TrEMBL record, chain A:
Known EC number: 2.5.1.18
Top-level division of the source organism's lineage: Eukaryota
Chief localization: cytoplasm
Family: Belongs to the GST superfamily. Theta family.
Species assigned in the record: Gadus morhua
Reactions listed under catalytic activity: RX + glutathione = an S-substituted glutathione + a halide anion + H(+)
Quaternary structure (record): Homodimer.
Entry keyword annotation includes Membrane: no
Name the UniProt record assigns to this protein: glutathione transferase
Enzyme class: transferase
UniProtKB/TrEMBL annotation, chain B:
Pfam family, one: GST_C
Broadest EC class assigned to this enzyme: transferase
GO CC term, one of those recorded: cytoplasm
Complexes and interactors: Homodimer.
Name of this protein: glutathione transferase
Reactions accelerated catalytically: RX + glutathione = an S-substituted glutathione + a halide anion + H(+)
Length: 239, 241
């Protein structure tokens, strides 16, 4: 199995973490998003959508981290314990509910804050748009806690699942820009520690190393010419 | 207590859940809510779904939101025919891939076109600037191209030979811009042929019934009282303008 990954990307991290944590054998195929490798000819043969992560299992190619995670759980029952995607009807529904919701919520707002903070001032994000993005993130984080976490240890109950994995990698994205969303949030921090413990601190930190060191991203884009390519895309996010 | 499904058939994800439940003869109580009238913000509905969105279900004391999760739940609970959510590893992966991709692609772009063409002019009293409309249209065309070139290709349905949740979710989203008067099928014969296959697979009567409201949207919006819809102004300004 080949996994096409750039660990700057949240969905790449969730796929990477599940595979490493459960011992699923794979080859790490690096796709450097900051260099625009997803638009290259080689990667185009893997995915026309030009996004990561992507999985190649023999001849079978699959995109979308949620689908890849579900595939891995199903394909490797002997490696992946059942709690990752519970077979109990209601527990599974809670996992699915989160996995569906997060696209336009945690993921969308976390990504937006990441880009706005990381690219400023190379991309001149107006203050009210920045504030609005931060407010959206705050509201989505509040909803995450009050609806999805509630008083349980994890999203689906007392055991970690794909939902927590996807949640944590998305929440870490704005954290990588120096925005500590966990500050003043003891319940959320406690959940994070529980998830980290299950994944393994070392593995978790390793997976998040690139995102926690993104200070030079704007300069990288400036140096390699990607800035002009990215500018209109980021502008579009707030115009 | 019977299964309750909270629905507004103007909403794409409500239509997929409705069609799925009816097609599979799943017994349920249709709890009608009107999103444009703001029913989702009421106290009662808040107890069903604190995210204030439709569709939502209440099955005994179990509440669930998100159309994809709801259909996966119903498929499992009522043991619907396997083709809806195939057990074959790769076929299921194809369905899951589409169900994941569509949120930030066809759903987002189709919804935006509906708002820009119909709801915003009504609520704000102005036409949307041409450059915004063009940009939104370009996004929609890009998503439609991926539906055809990546998800369908030369297969009759997304997962292969039979209709699945993926086609159901796809069709209801694509019908949204159609409801605003934009016939996306006109210049896309392959897509139109797939639409007919899906329509036949779910049952033409059921399909047409589910889409009756959205296809009458232009007329309905024209007759709406814009002053009652001002609650949407901040959302519009933030998201679209």
């Amino acid at each position: 199995m080949e996994l096409y990954l750039d660990l700057h990307s949240q969905p790449c991290r969730s796929v990477y973490l599940l595979a490493k944590r459960t011992g699923i054998p794979f080859t790490f195929k690096s796709v450097d998003l900051s260099a625009g490798q997803q638009f290259g000819e080689d990667f185009g043969k893997v995915s026309v959508v030009r996004k990561v992560p992507a999985m190649k299992d023999g001849d079978f190619i699959l995109t979308e981290s949620v689908a890849i995670l579900q595939y891995m759980v199903e394909k490797f029952p002997q490696l992946v314990p059942g709690h990752w995607y519970p077979s109990d009807l209601q527990r599974r529904a809670l996992v699915n509910e989160f996995l569906s919701w997060q696209h336009t919520a945690l993921r969308a707002h976390g990504s937006k804050v990441f880009w706005f903070r990381r690219m400023f001032p190379s991309v001149a994000v107006p203050k009210e748009k920045m504030d609005s993005a931060l407010e959206d993130l705050k509201q989505t984080m509040d909803l995450f806690q009050s609806k999805f976490l509630k008083d349980s240890s994890f999203i689906a109950g007392e055991e970690v699942s794909l939902a927590d994995l996807v949640a944590i990698v998305e929440i870490m994205q704005p954290v990588g820009t120096g925005l500590d969303v966990f500050e003043g949030q003891p319940a959320l921090s406690a959940w994070r520690e529980r998830v980290k413990k299950v994944i393994g601190e070392e593995l978790f930190d390793e997976a998040h190393q690139s995102i926690m060191n993104v200070d030079c991203l704007a300069k990288t884009f400036q140096d390699n010419g990607m800035l002009e390519f990215l500018k209109p895309r980021i502008n579009k996010m707030f115009t | 207590m019977a299964l309750e499904i909270y629905l507004d058939l103007f909403s794409q994800p409500c239509r997929s859940v409705y069609i799925f439940a009816k097609k599979n003869n799943i017994p349920f109580e249709f709890k009608k809510i009107s999103l444009l009238e703001g029913h989702q913000y009421g106290e009662d509905f808040g107890k069903i779904n604190m995210m204030r969105k439709a569709p939502a279900i209440r099955d005994g004391d179990f509440c669930l939101a998100e159309s994809v999760a709801i259909m996966q739940y119903l498929a499992e609970k009522f043991q619907t025919p396997a083709h809806w959510y195939p057990s074959d590893l790769q076929q299921r992966a194809r369905v899951n891939e589409y169900l994941s991709w569509q949120h930030m692609a066809i759903r987002m772009h189709g919804s935006k076109i509906f708002w820009l063409r119909l709801l915003i002019p009504k609520i704000m009293g102005v036409e949307v600037p041409q450059d915004k409309m063009d940009a939104a249209l370009e996004d929609l065309n890009g998503s439609l191209k991926l539906v055809e070139d990546k998800f369908l290709q030369d297969r009759p349905f997304i997962a292969g030979e039979q209709v699945s949740l993926a086609d159901l979710v796809a069709i209801v989203e694509i019908m949204q811009p159609v409801g605003s008067g934009l016939d996306v099928f006109e210049s896309r014969p392959r897509l139109a042929a797939w639409r007919e296959r899906v329509r036949v697979a779910v049952g033409t009567e059921l399909f047409d019934e589910a889409h009756k409201d959205i296809l009458a949207a232009q007329e309905m919006v024209k007759n709406m009282d814009a002053s009652k819809m001002q609650v949407f102004k901040p959302k519009i300004l933030k998201l679209f303008l």
